[in-house]
Structures are given as C-alpha cells and as structure tokens.
C-alpha cells in the first residue's frame, strides 16, 4: 500500500470516528441508549432512579446538542422517578423531550433550563404531576408544543408564552385555573382542556388567542354556556368540541367570531330547545356561505314549534349533522316542515 492509500484510509477512518464520537461511550450512559442516524437521540426509558439519571448526564458528552430525549414507561411498569430536579440533564440540551408513564410528581423550576433555547416540544404525560413550573415558559422562545395530559395537576398559575402553539392539559381531573390562565398565550392554535372537570367558562376567556383554531372541552362539567363564553377573535375556528358535558342551557350570543368553517360539536349533552334568538345567528355564521357544521346527536330536543324556524330552512338544515333527534327519537331531518309550519301558525 502506498502512502497515499494509507493517507486516504486514515482520513476515512477519521471521518467514521468523528461521526461515531457524537454519542458518549455506551457504558457511561447505560441503561440510556444514544442513537445517531441523522439526528442524535437519547432513550432513557430503562433508567431506575433519579441518582442514576443524574450520573448519566454527568458523563462525557462529545456533543451536547441532541434532537430528542425519550423516557417512556408503560401503564403497568411506569418509570420509577418521582421528580426531576434542577439541572438534571447537565449541559445536554434537547429539541424534543417526551416523558410518558412515570411516577413524576414534581418538576423543579430549572430542570429543563439547559434546553431553554432549543426546546420546541415537551411532553410529560401519564404521570403524577401535581404542579408544573410555568415560570420557565417565557424563557423558552421556541417551545411550540406542551402536553401535560393524564396527570394530577391541581392548579396552574397563569401561563405565558409567545411561542406556544399547542397546549394539552386534558385528563387532569382536579385542575383549577383562573380566568387569566390563557390571556398570555396569544399564539395558541390548538387548546385541549378536555376531561378536566371544568364547570364554567368565563365570558371572553378565549379572546386573546388570535390564532386559535381547535378548542377541545369535551367531557367536562359544563352545564351552561353564558353569553360570550365562546367568543373568538381568530375567525379561523375549525373545531369547538363540547361533547359529553351536561349542558342544558345556552344563552343568546354565546358564540361568535368562529369564521365560516367551524364544527361545533355538542354531542351527548342535555340541550332540549334550540331557541331561534340563540341559534339562528350560529347557523347564519357558518352557512352563508360556509361549510361549518353543528352536531347535536345525543340531545333530546323538543320538536315543537320552537324548532319550526330551523326545519323551515333547507340551508340551515344542511349544516346540522344528521344525528340530531327529537326526544321521541324522530330525526330532525325527517320532520315535515309543512306540517310543523301549519301546526305552529294556528
Ligand atoms: C398568527 O396569526 C398571524 C396573523 O394572521 C400570523 O402572522 C402568525 O404567523 C400566526 N401564528 C401562528 C402560530 O400561526
Ligand atoms: C315525534 O315528534 C314529532 C314532532 O312533534 C312528530 O312529527 C313525530 O311524528 C314524532 N315521532 C314519533 C315516533 O312519535
């Protein structure tokens, strides 16, 4: 082999070594596993306790810039960590952190501080969080997605972020929050607070979310929709999901600013009347011309004269989902507009 060949062989080997060096030595971080295809990722699903996790992130990391950290237990075998202390990830930073099925109850204020500039997605779900350090959010300019669903969150102080686009707080059945919770989240596009036992919606609570498009409030304890409780400013609502509540009464002017494409889902509630003063403006907004829809399946509607205005309008009816039915089981779409009109004008 001539010197040139050896030189090229060494260059090639060097390239392999340099790229191979982006992960720490395997034994230094076991049982975490580092992988490097296009992006560097760490999987720490097998970590046994917090001391071990801290020790692992004290190892020598050739590159401290990672794409993703995954820590995923299972429903039957959650990861045995009960808290994440400040600085737990050392100098290593991540763009995405996915933590699921753990026993984590507490996250200290600066647990994720090393990733404050890089983090775009943070999930801590199916765990036992009773609180979350919201003070860190304004310091994370790139955080777009936060999912804290399936925890035991009790109270969230006001959230502030001008980057967050998707927030999921679903399945925190003891969650309480103030009227101000959402006022500093102006970039939110998707908001999910389903299954949280929410009892009331303060009028105007969503007005600051100028880009809101999906709002999930299903399976809460809402009984009443007051005026302005669903007022929006985005004009780009796609889904407003209120199914599985116990809504019995709906005030005039409860909904506005949805734009023309909104799906308003009120499946399985206890709405009995569709008063014209309340509902005509809703159907007008989504039907002239629009492709919005109202879904009222699973409500026992009184199909008397109070519905004549709706049944008489083929255009409005075309924006009412077929499942809407009278208390006696007859579908609204099967009612005879002429006989209703005749009965009600006499
Ligand atoms: C929010 O809306 C504004 C104005 O329409 C737009 O410039 C901005 O990019 C939107 N933000 C998101 C997160 O979509
Ligand atoms: C249910 O009530 C509507 C409106 O009064 C009536 O037109 C329809 O025939 C009734 N259906 C049944 C099955 O009694």
UniProtKB/TrEMBL annotation:
<dbReference type="InterPro" id="IPR032675">
    <property type="entry name" value="LRR_dom_sf"/>
</dbReference>
<keyword id="KW-0433">Leucine-rich repeat</keyword>
<dbReference type="Pfam" id="PF13855">
    <property type="entry name" value="LRR_8"/>
</dbReference>
<dbReference type="InterPro" id="IPR001611">
    <property type="entry name" value="Leu-rich_rpt"/>
</dbReference>
<keyword id="KW-0732">Signal</keyword>
<feature type="signal peptide">
    <location>
        <begin position="1"/>
        <end position="20"/>
    </location>
</feature>
<protein>
    <submittedName>
        <fullName>Oplophorus-luciferin 2-monooxygenase non-catalytic subunit</fullName>
    </submittedName>
</protein>
<dbReference type="InterPro" id="IPR003591">
    <property type="entry name" value="Leu-rich_rpt_typical-subtyp"/>
</dbReference>
<keyword id="KW-0677">Repeat</keyword>
């Amino acid at each position: 082999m001539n010197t040139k060949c050896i030189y090229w062989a060494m260059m090639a080997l060097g390239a392999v070594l340099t790229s191979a060096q982006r992960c720490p030595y395997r034994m230094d971080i076991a049982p975490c596993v580092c992988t490097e295809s296009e992006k560097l990722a760490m999987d720490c699903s097998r970590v046994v306790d917090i001391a071990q996790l801290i020790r692992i992130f004290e190892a020598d990391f050739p590159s401290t810039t990672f794409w993703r950290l995954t820590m995923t237990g299972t429903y039957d075998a959650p990861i045995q960590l009960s808290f994440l202390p400040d600085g737990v990830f050392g100098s290593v930073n991540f763009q995405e952190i996915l933590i699921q099925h753990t026993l984590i109850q507490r996250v200290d204020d600066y647990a994720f501080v090393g990733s404050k500039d890089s983090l775009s997605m943070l999930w801590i779900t199916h765990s036992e969080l009773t609180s979350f350090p919201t003070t860190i959010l304004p310091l994370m300019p790139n955080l777009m997605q936060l999912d804290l669903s399936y925890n035991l969150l009790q109270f969230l102080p006001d959230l502030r972020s001008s980057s967050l686009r998707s927030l999921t707080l679903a399945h925190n059945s003891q969650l309480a929050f103030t009227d101000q919770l959402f006022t500093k989240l102006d970039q939110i596009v998707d908001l999910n607070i389903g299954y949280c036992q929410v009892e009331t919606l303060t009028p105007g609570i969503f007005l600051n979310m100028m880009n809101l498009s999906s709002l999930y409030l299903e399976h809460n304890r809402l009984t009443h929709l007051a005026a302005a409780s669903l007022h929006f400013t985005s004009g780009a609502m796609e889904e407003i999901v209120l199914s599985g509540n116990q809504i019995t009464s709906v005030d005039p002017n409860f909904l506005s600013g949805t734009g023309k494409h909104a799906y308003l889902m009120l499946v399985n509630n206890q709405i009995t009347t569709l008063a014209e003063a309340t509902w005509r403006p809703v159907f007008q907004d989504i039907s002239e011309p629009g492709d919005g829809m109202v879904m009222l399946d699973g409500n026992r509607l009184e199909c008397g004269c109070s519905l004549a205005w709706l049944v008489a309008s083929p255009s409005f009816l075309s924006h009412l989902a077929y499942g809407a039915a009278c208390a006696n089981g007859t579908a609204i779409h099967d009612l005879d507009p002429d006989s209703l009109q005749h009965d009600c004008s006499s």
